Amino acid sequence: MNIFLVFLILGVIFLGYKKINSKKTKNLKLDKFKNKLQSTQTNIDRIFLREEEKTFSNPNINIYIGVYDNEENINRKSNIHRARLSKFKKSKLNGEMIFQDDEQRIYKFNDGKKVYL
């Protein structure tokens, strides 16, 4: 009988200890991933990343650099423009198609004539 009570008490202590430890997060990386996945800012960043990738892959999409754009946006847009020039040899910037020849010179067409910039 005494042995039964000892095992019963040890079993209760073990279950209580197990219950307390199960409330602690076992996998911090998994919790961090879940929180990041559900974050609103992450979803917004993902949308901008897709839009930027679409712009980068198509040189016919216009990149508009406005007067009121901040420096970070201007740098990002100009880097996309330069990358498209290097990859496709053409890029549309502020409504004008700009080209790059084999000698790395930049030009645009004005009334059917090449105008080097």
What would your notes on this structure say?
By secondary structure, the protein is α+β, with helices and mostly antiparallel strands. The chain is 58% helix and 15% strand. It has a domain at 59-117. It has four helices and four strands. A four-stranded antiparallel sheet has the order 1-2-3-4. The radius of gyration is 30 Å and the shape is rod-shaped. The protein starts with a helix and ends with a strand.
Quickly list its features.
alpha+beta, 4-stranded antiparallel β-sheet, 117 residues
Task: Give a topology summary.
Blueprint: H1 2-22, H2 28-38, H3 40-57, H4 71-88, E1 90-93, E2 96-100, E3 106-110, E4 113-116
Total beta strand runs: 4
The biggest beta sheet is recorded as: 4 strands, antiparallel
Q: What coarse outline follows from CA principal-axis ratios?
A: rod-shaped
Report the portion of residues in β strands: 15-25%
Distance between the termini: 98 Å
Q: What would you call the structural class?
A: alpha+beta
Order of helices and strands: HHHHEEEE
Mean pLDDT: 82
Give me the Rg, rounded: 30 Å
Strand order of the largest sheet: 1-2-3-4
| Helix content, binned percent | 55-70%
Residue runs with pLDDT of under 50 for 5 or more positions = none
| Number of continuous helical runs | 4
Brief sketch in words of this structure:
By secondary structure, this protein is an alpha+beta fold.
